[in-house]
Amino acid sequence: MKPAPRAFPMTSVAPPENPSWRDRLLAWRHRLIASPHFQRFAAAFPPTRGIARRNARALFDLCAGFVYAQVLAAALRLDLFRILADGPMTPDALARRLDLPPDRALCLLRAAASLGLLTALRDGRFALGDLGAALLGNPSVAAMVAHHAMLYDDLRDPVALLRGTAAPTRLSGYWAYAGAPDPAGADEAAVAPYGALMGASQALVARDILDAYPLARHAHLLDVGGGEGAFAVEAARSAPELRVTLVDLPAVAARAGRRFAEEGLAGRATARGGSFHDGLPTGADVVSLVRVVHDHDDAPALALMRSARAALPPGGTLLVAEPMAGTPGAEPVGDAYFGFYLLAMGSGRPRKAAELTGMLRQAGFTQVREHRTRRPLLVRLLAARAP
Ligand SMILES: CC(C)=CCC/C(C)=C/CC/C(C)=C/C=C/C(C)=C/C=C/C=C(C)/C=C/C=C(C)/C=C/C=C(C)/C=C/CC(C)(C)O
Ligand SMILES: C[S@@+](CC[C@H](N)C(=O)[O-])C[C@H]1O[C@@H](n2cnc3c(N)ncnc32)[C@H](O)[C@@H]1O
Predict the structure, then answer these.
(1) What is the tens place of the pLDDT at every residue in 232-278?
(2) Where is the active site (predicted)?
(3) What CATH number did the domain enclosing 110 receive?
(4) Are residues 186 and 177 in contact, defined by beta-carbon separation less than 8 angstroms?
(5) 246 has which bridge partners?
(6) Tens digits of per-residue pLDDT, 301-337?
(7) What range does the domain containing 355 cover?
(8) Which atom of ligand 2 lies at the shortest distance from residue 275's CA?
(9) Which residues form ligand 1's pocket by a CB distance below 6 Å?
(10) Nearest alpha carbon to residue 207 among 378, 383, 328, 337
């Protein structure tokens, strides 16, 4: 009988001719961990039992991540957390509110409780868990979870994506500027969905940036790729004397201009439409690139930093704020999530703070300094001074 094909073909690679003692030690460790015999032994042996269980759980969570994400997606679609915001409920009452058969409702409730989204009370009722309660305060996370349907479609064949042989992705169409030859030509219908998503998710980052780097010390902010103005509005509110100019693609800038007028900021906030690849207006003493640099490959990202340098007066400041690769304690956020997200989008990559610092120096900035943000997994901040 023909053997079944391996789901993950193993390629054998000849070992290096003179491995170092470190490589040999590592190879021995890996052979040991890979051995089912050792795995069984380690799971029973008291000194290694804890490590073995933690590793098994970590590997299981990697296998099951999509399932956990779909439990969250179902709970959000059914509005479960808002329903429970008023207090604990019995499974039967919840089944009626969610319009689910009682056994299916219980399946969801138990799954959500196992993930910390809900708490199963001793009397059989279900209440919000700490994570479910935190979601209530971050409604934009729900929008991101719904948006992930598109990302997961694109990740269906991750190897094709890595090899560049995948069909055009949904995310590259969603982000109308990604790899577009004429991004400035994008119309309102093309930019509105991502503009709204970015605007909503600014709630997760704007205050953290402004708390880490208060803008009251500056006179005029130029927010480059500022989207529909959510960060600019928050910046203007935080510093009542600050003037703000926002640059984005014409269709996006038009939406930002309307937002400034609605917020009563038309007197000190202006939106300018155009491509930032064609240079930046002068006059500001601080330029911000919020969640913009990681969208772009190295050459255009460096060119953008050079344009910011050219637009600033001596002593002016460039702020680069985005999630970064290699963030201690949040490595998978930058390297796995944003790494694959941007791959699916078809442009850019997450960079380490040190890489961005190197690029900023190359672009002519000095004194690059990181300002600590509250939640570095969501956004980190570099401030670079123009000499
Ligand atoms: C009260 C008592 C007694 C004890 C309390 C115990 C305690 C201290 C509990 C802590 C509770 C607490 C304050 C929790 C707070 C939780 C928070 C703030 C959670 C925030 C979660 C944020 C998430 C999950 C954010 C997700 C963001 C995503 C997925 C962003 C995606 C961004 C994308 C895709 C951006 C795309 C832009 C592009 C294209 C890359 O440029
Ligand atoms: C990921 S969004 C970030 C928006 C906003 N800074 C925020 O953090 O919510 C990237 C922004 O860059 C803008 N953008 C992309 N390419 C551009 C270009 N060539 N010229 C001007 N803006 C551009 C997009 O329209 C979008 O608003």
Answers:
(1) 999 999 999 999 999 999 999 999 999 999 999 999 999 999 999 99
(2) 294
(3) 1.10.10.10
(4) yes
(5) 223, 271
(6) 999 999 999 999 999 999 999 999 999 999 999 999 9
(7) 140-385
(8) 20
(9) 130, 134, 138, 141, 144, 175, 201, 204, 291, 294-295, 341-342, 345
(10) 378
Sign of the Cα pseudo-torsion (31, 33, 34, 38, in order): positive
Token reading at 355:
């890489």
The pLDDT value given to residue 39: 86
**Phi, then psi, of 47 in degrees rounded to 5:** -65, -25
Q: Which residues contact 230 (CB under 8 A, 6 or more apart)?
A: 198, 199, 200, 202, 203, 206, 259
C-beta atoms surrounding 353 within 10 Å: 19
Specify the length of the chain in residues: 387
Domain co-membership, 84 together with 195: no
For 160, other C-beta atoms within 10 Å of its C-beta total 11
Share of the chain above pLDDT 70, in %: 96
Amino acid identity at 196: A
26 belongs to a structural domain: no
Same domain membership, residue 235 and residue 336: yes
Q: Looking at the domain assignment, is residue 380 inside a domain?
A: yes
148 classed as catalytic: no
Q: Is residue 282 part of a domain?
A: yes
Encoding tokens for residue 331?
A: 């490595």
Among 128, 122, 116, 115, residue whose Cα is nearest residue 88? 128
Protein residue closest via CA to atom 10 of ligand 1:
130
Whether 232 and 269 have beta carbons less than 8 Å apart is answered as yes
Name the residue with the closest Cα to ligand 1, atom 22.
Answer: 141
pLDDT above 50 for 291 = yes
Predicted ipTM of the assembly: 0.95
- Report the pLDDT averaged over residues 366-376: 97
pTM of this structure: 0.92
Radius of gyration of the chain (CA): 25
Instruction: Tell me how far apart the alpha carbons of residues 380 and 387 are, in angstroms, rounded to a whole number.
Output: 23
Q: Let me know: does 225 contact 198? Beta carbons within 8 Å.
A: no
Give the distance, in angstroms, between the CA of residue 109 and the centroid of all CA atoms in the same chain.
27
